[in-house]
Amino acid sequence: MRAGPGQVLAGRYRLTDHLEALGAFAADERTGDVVRMRALELPAVLIGDQEPEGPVAEPGERLVRRVAAVGAAAPRHARLLQGAGAFVEGDLLWTVEERPAGLPLDALLGAGPLPPYRAAEVAADLAGALRALHGAGLVHGNVTAASVLVGEDGAALLGGLLPGVAEEALAEELGGPGGRRRYEVRAALVGPVAERWPLDGGPAGDCWALGVLLHRMATGRAPYPESGVPELVTAVREGRRVPAEACGPLGPLVERLVQSDPALRPTAAEIALELAELLARAPEPVDGPAVAGAPGLPGPRSAGPARRRRAKGAAAAGRSRDGRGGKAEAVRAEEPGAARPPRIPPALLGPLLVGGVFLLLVLGVAAVVLFAG
Questions:
Q1: What is the residue-averaged pLDDT of the chain?
Q2: How far apart are CA 218 and CA 212, in angstroms?
Q3: What pTM was estimated for this model as a whole?
Q4: I need a surface site. Which of 103, 113, 316, 365 has the fewest CB within 10 A?
Q5: Residue 47 pLDDT > 70, yes or no?
Q6: Backbone angles phi, psi at 147, to 5 degrees
């Protein structure tokens, strides 16, 4: 990339030493926040013969306006990373997004698939973010493992909105609104990432992508071949994919999400409700060393946060059924017959019995002496 540590872009973003091929972390000198920046190379046809320090060409301005319009219209949601804008500098189109502490989901999946109920927790967070976006009349279009950040508390945050918009806008700018040329440009920008190639757009396309991502989280691979874009697109079009049985309890939901008819797919709101009900029935985590290193967690994680997350899901399901919120969980904890720990530790029962027998003998001898006297 044509930028280095310490360089200030757009007059406010000072790049740090975390540089990638076309991305970087930066400190926003106006707010002090850490942001994640991604760059797209603009072909010469869009920037003309102007010098990098010269005024931005009209095509670049159109791209920035399109990205900025989506960023301004995006709702604020606890599970949605906020985009901070876009700008062109030289031959690069930059998008800026907030970056709290955490690890990308694709990095976590590098250690292996997630346990099914952990994958359900992540998907429930993403469904909530998609529900907010769809309610605002927006489509995400970039629901991938690389766009998801798992925070230090285990919550999943959906990012990548502005980079996805920038890629789609650039593909249309170079290839036109449709046709072979746009497909070729988009294939070069997006690559063979299954979640990015639904047959249909709109909210139903986002839900299809979430189904593909659920399959990836639960099994460690996409349900479609990713050896190349033509092979991937052909498999998606023909419905050739790996069955979802390996996804465990998530299998039925994954099957409905990746079906070809968009009208039959669950909406983001329905996905969130179904996952909340699934998590309400989930078994508690098993204590012990096996859990401490479970894949999919950003670090050592106690059972507390996981139980709180499931309790929230149970409360949501409870509200949908009887309006009582999370009280049902507390009532179940006090049901008669529930197993309780013994009041006296088993290790003390033997000594206590021996002591009781000895005390009875002493009292018996004392009674005999008293009446005999």
A1: 81
A2: 10
A3: 0.75
A4: 365
A5: no
A6: -95, -5
